[in-house]
Amino acid sequence: MKNLLKVTLVIALAAGLTACKKNVKDDANADMMTGTTTEMVLQETTVVEEEVETVQASLGVVHFALDKYNLSAEARKIVEANAKAIKAQAAGAPYTVVVEGNCDSRGTIAYNIALGEKRANEVKAYYVRLGIPAANISTVSYGKEKPICYENTQSCWAKNRRADTILTIN
């Protein structure tokens, strides 16, 4: 029902903006006007979505060994605690979980994207085993593109080899 309301509002805004648009004689100005109109509609969509009141929470961070994607015993405990928190916080409300795979700065971009994906998928698979529906979980790999530590040291690289879990409750 909320999604139908959002779609209706966006269509009404787009129709209103189109009706107010001035006649444009040349193609260059028409392209500029089209881009402006689209941007305005996207901004309105954002405002509408903020009114729905979503809650977003970051959960425990799972760390990985160098060039590994399997879960250690400590990592399993973190995922288990996260699963309990997801079940408690969502409690019947619609929710989504995003697992973000990350790597340290060493290695190629392609290698790190693939490794980050394996890490995220491993965490997702464990969430599913713990009773979180797979349909509610998506994964993304950032490879080495979202470090939290920028030094070229072993301890810093270890912090960047991680999977972050983001819970969004609608």
Summarize this, please?
The chain is of the alpha+beta class and 170 residues long.
Characterise the protein shown here.
Helix 1 runs antiparallel to helix 2. Strands 1, 2, 3, 4 and 5 form a 5-stranded mixed beta sheet that branches. The radius of gyration is 21 Å and the shape is elongated. The protein has 5 helices and 5 strands. Helix 4 links the parallel strand 3 and strand 4. The chain folds into 2 domains: 50 residues; 115 residues, 60s Ribosomal Protein L30, Chain: A, CATH 3.30.1330.60. With 170 residues, it is an alpha+beta fold. About 27% of the residues have low confidence.
Biggest sheet record: 5 strands, mixed
- Gap between N and C termini: 13 Å
Reported CATH architecture of the largest domain: 2-Layer Sandwich
CATH fourth-tier homologous superfamily of the largest domain: OmpA-like domain
Tag the structure with descriptive keywords:
5 strands; 2 domains; 170 residues; 60s Ribosomal Protein L30, Chain: A; 5-stranded mixed sheet; alpha+beta
Topology:
Blueprint: H1 2-20, H2 27-51, E1 55-58, E2 62-63, H3 73-90, E3 95-102, H4 109-129, E4 137-143, H5 154-160, E5 162-169
Parallel strand pairs: 3-4
Antiparallel strand pairs: 1-5, 2-5, 3-5
Helix pairs in contact: 1-2
